[in-house]
């Protein structure tokens, strides 16, 4: 498989280890949207391993969410684990989540976007596809952007000034071509990643750094639905890989990735050695690369 770095990981390694002092999350509050199981649960565990003061788990299913919280509390007694039922598809549910946090004087330092509508199917006939696209976009784009807006609008004057981070667990489907039978998922994932990429152009990484991450090939509930011959052909990644990568990505070490789209499999030490390449405004970003952007801006303006 082609890779931006020579080393392509399938499991966690020292540089992104939650136990590494450089990745320490002490005094930070982490909010993970979609943390009941799979990658989201692994991310919650990784932040707790990194000594986060508080990890807020959200999910739609109360029983699954409460079980996840009980499991984590049993292993991490010194950190606060807070489960909150939230349906990212429903605007009122997202607003209620942030109102609850505000009323309790909870300031979120790191927002991890993980929940997704993974609907699949053909794009043709288009009239049958549009309802699916509308549903996927409501969750994968508008729902998450409302959460991002609430995150960025937190009242800074009530809290100690801190740098924030947004980690968007995206998918290779956001930039893959072709992406058979994944049109709604691909379009909605690409839309969110691109919007966050543009948002990063207007926000300094010192205020909040924003990174889009493909988590790798993790055998999630959605992936389990794939045909057996497909599953047998894939070299699966451990869910702990994108989890540890998310912890590292939320640290100041990853500021240079602000606004970029990266894979959790890529070796972070190699990426850091290549910082000089990030002066290219299009490097590791979605879009048609290789044209003079100044010309495009001229015509738009």
UniProtKB/TrEMBL annotation:
Gene Ontology molecular function: oxidoreductase activity
Gene3D superfamilies to which the protein is assigned, alphabetical: NAD(P)-binding Rossmann-like Domain
Protein name: NAD(P)-binding protein
Higher taxonomy: Eukaryota, Fungi, Dikarya, Ascomycota, Pezizomycotina
Residue ranges of every copy of the Ketoreductase domain listed in the record: 28-214
Keywords per UniProt: Oxidoreductase
UniProt similarity note: Belongs to the short-chain dehydrogenases/reductases (SDR) family.
Entries under InterPro entries matching the protein: KR_dom (IPR057326), NAD(P)-bd_dom_sf (IPR036291), SDR_fam (IPR002347)
Organism, as annotated: Periconia macrospinosa
Chain ranges passing through the membrane: none
Entries under PANTHER family matching the protein: ALCOHOL DEHYDROGENASE
SMART domains the record matches: PKS_KR
């Amino acid at each position: 498989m082609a890779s931006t770095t020579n080393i392509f990981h399938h499991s966690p390694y020292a540089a992104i280890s939650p136990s590494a002092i450089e990745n320490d999350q002490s005094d930070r509050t982490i909010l993970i949207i979609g943390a009941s199981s799979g990658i989201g649960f692994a991310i919650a565990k990784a932040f707790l391993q990194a000594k986060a003061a508080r990890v807020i788990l959200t999910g739609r299913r109360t029983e699954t969410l409460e079980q996840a919280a009980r499991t984590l509390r049993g292993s991490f007694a010194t950190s606060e684990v807070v489960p909150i039922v939230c349906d990212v598809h429903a605007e009122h549910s997202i607003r209620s989540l942030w109102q609850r946090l505000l009323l309790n004087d909870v300031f979120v330092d790191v927002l991890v976007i993980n929940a997704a509508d993974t609907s699949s199917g053909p794009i043709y006939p288009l009239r049958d596809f549009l309802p699916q696209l509308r549903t996927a976009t409501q969750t994968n784009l508008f729902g998450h952007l409302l959460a991002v807006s609430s995150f960025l609008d937190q009242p800074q004057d009530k809290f100690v000034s801190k740098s924030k981070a947004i980690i968007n667990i995206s998918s290779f489907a956001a930039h893959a071509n072709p992406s058979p039978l994944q049109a709604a998922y691909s379009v909605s994932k690409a839309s969110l990643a691109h919007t966050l990429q543009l948002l990063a152009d207007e926000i300094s990484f010192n205020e909040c750094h924003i990174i889009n991450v493909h988590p790798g090939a993790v055998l999630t509930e959605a992936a389990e639905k794939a045909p057996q011959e497909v599953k047998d052909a894939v070299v699966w990644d451990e869910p702990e890989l994108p989890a540890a990568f998310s912890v590292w990505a939320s640290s100041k070490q990853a500021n240079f990735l602000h606004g970029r789209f990266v894979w959790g499999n890529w070796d972070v030490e190699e990426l850091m050695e290549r910082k000089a390449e990030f002066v290219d405004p299009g490097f590791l970003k979605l879009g048609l690369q290789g044209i003079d952007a100044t010309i495009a801006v001229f015509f738009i303006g």
